[in-house]
Amino acid sequence: MFKHTVKIDDKDVTIDFWDTAGQERFASLHSSYYYRAHACIMVFDVTRKETYTNLANWYRELQQYRKGIPILVVANKIDANPRVTSKPFQFTDKRGLPKVRFCSASDGTNVVALFEDIVNMAYRRKQEMALGRPMSGDATTHTPVPLVGDDED
Asked: Which long-range contacts (CB under 8 A, 24 or more apart) does 80-84 make?
């Protein structure tokens, strides 16, 4: 887990980032990562097709535990294959999600913007829930964001 504090609307907001690693051997732990999550970043590795294929399973699982939270889908390792940024990815279109974000954790391309966007999306969603449409488990002072993704062993 990584904890970070940001200022949004002149308020200090503490964010907990949890990484589920996306690996099958950790699948039984995913539900505990989703508990009280206010947003999710789903990451796939552009050099490993099976990670893109796994998005459907991760999405289905997330919807079971935290339906309606903001989700960003990220194509990682674009430094290894820059041409992938011109490919259409239908996963997000089929589910009404924002377009796939392209980044490289290795060289930092779009990483800061990605985290700023998901934190703001989570914060806005949490504020909406506080105005009368609460989701179960949203009574936390922290904003956990599980990272479901392409980590390797």
From this structure: 80/46, 80/47, 80/104, 80/106, 81/46, 81/47, 84/46
